[in-house]
# Entry
Amino acid sequence: MQTIGLYKSYFNDGVETPVLFDINLTIGKGEFVAIMGPSGSGKSTLMHILGFLDTHTIGEYLFHGERTEALDDDALALIRATRVSFVFQAFNLLPRTTVLQNVMLPLLYHPTIRTLEREERAMRAIETVGLGDRKDYLSSQLSGGQKQRVAIARALVTEPEMIFADEPTGNLDSASGVAVMDALQKLHKDGHTIILVTHELATAKHADRIIHIQDGRIDEDSRDFEKVLSI
# Structure
């Protein structure tokens, strides 16, 4: 994926609020990238644009070399259903639904996966995050760390190219946070591109590359963690 001169503003009652400025960025297949920055810096907005949950105002966003501005709603929906997935800080699980049922949910909207395949694929994803023995538990019966690993399994079940994780350890204790990041690292080693938004230094250290955003602009893009830490 690549952005060229990307800007983002929000408009409310004729008032423009600029959020991102002149973002030039290339992320290759299989990278593990952390996007850092203070609250309000624009890091989550950037991730939402890259993950097709939001659109930019000016500039270009190329996905596999194709300008996303040229994609219609059906094409964008297909990308969201098959090629990218999200893990959110708040888990977003259905509390009175089992782990297996939660993980199967994205497959209900998948255009090619047949009904008979859904449970098999969901079980593979659950076992990948080490929760095979919890498949019949209600999500309300799980710890915070287990809930986040279920959310990762749900993101994984469509076998996406890219997994976006927005503050995935923000609601967790340190031990649970390590378990969640270990699961994401395993997915990275299996070939998935991971794009992580975090304000936690210990979480960002799991990435191979750190992009730091300040006031809507990229002020550092480095594989040298100490260089980013000095900002």
The beta strands are 2-12, 15-26, 32-36, 58-63, 66-67, 84-88, 162-166, 193-197, 209-214, 217-222.
